[in-house]
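Practice problem. Given the sequence and the SMILES for zinc ion, write out the predicted structure.
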Amino acid sequence: MGYVFFWIAFCIVVAIVARSKGRSGIAWFFLSFLISPLLSLILVLVLKPAEVEVVVDEVGFDGSRDLNNDAYKLFLSKKYDIQKNDVFNKFVCREQMYPTIEEALVYAHGLEQELTAIRKSKLLDGGQIECCKCGGKNPADTSDCRYCGYKLET
Ligand SMILES: [Zn+2]
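Answer key:
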């Protein structure tokens, strides 16, 4: 009886290790119960973690910023959180609805270009920030343009 308890406890350990590696805990519990917890533990420890989460670069995108580029479209859809709304059967991006994913992507692409433009125009020699909207020169640590109030930071 004590042996059965030990066997099951060992299977639970295998399941927990499996879970921590992004595998199915239940599947590994039964697998180790059927073969051997020790063997399964070795197997699960040898296994590489299941999926490596794709981290979207918050700063920018290196490839071609072109709406024909699938990687760029994926980057946009993640960064601007484009999601399909099943109730309206439309795509939602920044609380706006678009009938097709292409239109939502065009909108996100516009936002992204705006951000890139701000980044490009904001730093001057001497550390000043030039407002990309009015061209006013602001001290380095300004977040809103002191001439027109346009947001300088991205
Ligand atoms: Zn300005």
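Check your answer against the key. Helices lie at 2-20, 25-34, 37-46, 70-79, 101-122.
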